[in-house]
Amino acid sequence: MTGSLHRVLFGPRLDIGASARTLLLLAVPLVGIPTVLAAIVPAGQELLWQRVQLTIAAILGVAITAQSCRGTAGRTREVRGWFSVAFAAWLATELLRDLDLSGIVGAIPADLGLVLVVVGVLGMYRATLRGRLHRRAELSVYLDAAVVCVAVAATLLALFGGGVIENPAQLPLLVYALVFLAMFASTALLDLALRVPLKLVGACAILLAMVLVGVGYIGQSELAGVVGSWPFASLISAGVLIGAFGTATWSDATDDSPGYARRAQQLRDLIPLTAVAIVPLILLPAQIVVADLTFRLVINGSIGFIVVGSVVRQRLLLRDRERVLGGMRDALRSVERRARQLGGVEEAGRELALSGPGGATLEAVASILADQFGYDHVTICVADGEGLKIGAQRGARELVPPLDPVAGLVGRVVRRRTPELVIDVANDPDYIVGDPAVNSEICVPMLDGERLLGVLDVQSTAEARLDETDFAAVLAVADRLAGAVARGFQGQRLVDEKDFISAILDAVGAIVIVVGADGRLVRFNAAASAVSGYSTAEIDARGSLDFLIPPEQRQEVLVGIGGLHTGGPAHERENDWLRKDGTRRHIAWSNTVVRDDDAVVRYTIATGIDITERKDLEDELAHKALHDPLTGLPNRRLLMDRLEHALRSRRGAETSLLFLDVDDFKTVNDRLGHDVG
Q1: Contacts of 216 (CB under 8 A, 6+ apart)
Q2: Share of residues in the chain with pLDDT > 90 (%)
Q3: What is the pTM of this model?
Q4: DSSP 614-668
């Protein structure tokens, strides 16, 4: 529980040196003992022990702040250094008071040291704020701090000034109170502007110290006669030591949490308004009631300063607001412009994707750049052999002379292969004047690797010159143009290659079929369409040629192809195709597969020859060899073949042979021979 409270109040870790920590621990007895003695000794000795505790507190404060500067750098060292100056001046003031009390020195006014204390605090203020806000915000903080400082001082003077008029001896005490409480108000405003973390270290500890010292002096001025002065001297001593502790732990850390930033800004705006509200509530009644001329002059001067400061602050706020609104308007225009450009880029991309990089498409893209982007001259050049030719052009008038692919900015971009933004063409040594009104130009090469596909050139005559936003938009359009042109070239190459391969396949004189690993028909040649009787469109609609295989042969064909996929060698087979007219064609196939680097089958290639006529001829010859040409009946050769086959199949079993004779056929055999019979 104690650790948690410590983290809440002081943060996770106190960054304070060992020497400063030791001095703070010593301060407890060194200041505490004189404080106790001042409370218990007789009234005549009370002032002595008060002086002892105040002087010891000042000495310890100087030692702690001086030690805290060691090992630091930058802003931290500068701020702690200015606080060390203030503490040194404070110690000098206390020592002069001691000498004055002892009667040794009386000619030097001790209160002059307060001026050096204020100088040290002002130096701290400047070192803390410098460079952390923009110029107008920094000036606003200084102005608000001055207004609040004067308002607090004038309010305290209005509340307690009457007693000073009656008892002038209280004036130094009231002045000290005014100074420290005014410094507290202005420093609190500074801490809110910089969003200082709300921990009892560093800047917040310094604020607490200023309050304690200011309240201590008010107490000595107004309540010392009632409760004695030692409690208020103790507050001053405690404030000095807490201020030294705050100096030793000061850093430029900030709390950027949104909630704290919002509340800090609200307080930051409220404090100056409160200072203005003090004028009719306290200061005006006070200067009317009090008759002392000096008092009234001070109050009137304070009122005038607060009013003038408030007016100046409002003017600064209005200018700052106008600057912010102007920036917002510029940002809005930039966003709208960027949106139009993005829309134009997308429209150009769609046009190129749908229609390709043809002449009409290039004209449409040039029109988009001219109309939606607002560019005066747009030229799209495409590669033409070793040079460039104009593919599309838009502009208020034709450029004279026309774009030269080897000269000017275009020529430089062609040579270097890098895009260029020329904000002021008058300062470009390669710029060739075409339109005298042109003031800026963007030229972007369209590349496919190292190959130059063309150039996109944009020129503007508008007062607002082309900038990085335009450059990015033109780059995007050029990139899409280059992609479309490259795809056009690649597509044309693919078409040429496809036509070349198709010509080869059609000239083969055989059926060629390519089937993907998923069974989808990838490619076929004209012979496949001619043999099947189906048109190319009809085959494409089917997506496969399996419908041409007779049902009784389909399984056998699939098994053969499956064997290829599982690692079998290329093989030959025959099967029929069912033509569109219902007739059959007999095809002899040679099948193989194409595998990728991982040995996975990508395609199956089948090459087939229509052998229907040859097959019919073979069947006819075989029939004639085994049948009588006159009667068509099986002849002796077929008989002997069947008999031999029967004898082999019996494997030793008895075989019977039945002869049927024809009457008078013997005459034929005897006269012409058995072969003829």
Answers
A1: 232, 233, 234, 235, 236, 239
A2: 11
A3: 0.52
A4: HHHHHHHHHHHHHB-TTT--B-HHHHHHHHHHHHHHHTTS---------TTHHHH
